From TrEMBL:
Pfam families: FA_desaturase. The chain crosses the membrane at residues 45-64, 70-88, 205-224, 230-254. The keyword Plastid does not apply. This is Fatty acid desaturase.
Amino acid sequence: MSNHLNSALSEPSMANPLAPDLPLPHRKIIRSWLIPMAQGETAKAIALLVMDAVLWLGCIAGTIFIESVLIKIVLGLVAGFVTGRIFILGHDACHQSYTPHRELNKVLGRIAFLPSLTPYSLWDVGHNVVHHGQTNLKGFDFVWAPLSKAEFDALPAWRKALERLYRSGWGPVFYYLIEIWWRREYFPNAKNKPGDRPIFLKDNLLVTGFAIIWIACLIAGALATGQSVWLGLITGFAVPFLFWNGMIGFVVYVHHTHTSVSWYDKKSEWLRAQPFVSTTVHLTFNWIWGSLMHHIMEHTAHHVDMSVPLYRLKEAQNTLETILPERIFVQKFSWAWYFETARKCKLYDFENKAWLDFDGNKTADSVRVVLSPAPAGQNG
């Protein structure tokens, strides 16, 4: 690459956007644009966690002490949504971006993961190491990784039916509950456990202890108020937990599944395709849903630099979209778009970079990223 082009790639700024036909700069250069936003604030971080924790506890208490079944259900659903909000705080803590203090982040992260019953250390490995380290690389990143036609055809009938459910548009709750939480996080077996570190067991025991206390409080509350124990457990535990699983399953699906987003099965090709930019989607909303979800939908900025805290992601995302026009996938959310995506994105043709239906028919061509030359000696 010429010195002139190297110079051009280092110069883009908010006032001088990069032309869409030029290669993307190195990740270090792109991350340098976000350095001013990568500063955690301890007081703000703790305040956010306290606020959401109080809101969650209030909703759970409401499912105990309010007698109206309808209000109990509504509060259970709200508690599930707040579980997602609290989890996002823990997500930042696990990335060490929530506060400037490493050990404090570990404590706050474990606290924030309690309502979702997420074992901190196991999620850390699966998310930070695997997902962020190998985003949309088949065989490494397992979250919503699409099957090829040959892989799908080789499945037994029951597993094909499960895959159809997962990718029906109605399946995120089942996908996350079964494939992520149950198989890979909550006391995973040897096949799905990333090693045998003692902290994995400790974190599973921590969330189990929390679940026992949570359930015990619901039972005690129902008995003390003369209400149905089963109704209390359903509205105060099952509804929030299932809503949370559906919420996180949906969020991770729309972050990396889009007709324009490519998946890769060759690491050399994946590396040259700038995967930290080209494999993520910024989903926008008409109302304030993005803010209510602590800006987790400003997802490109998060993948470019995980040290940017959630309360600065909006500014970081705007910076990227201004400097890199036409490079970042920005999608306005609608349920019509979501179910159309679910209809088209069933299987994936890794060789031709195309989405397929379950019969193998092409439904969409994903965007082929202009690849820079592979480093010498690198192969697939």
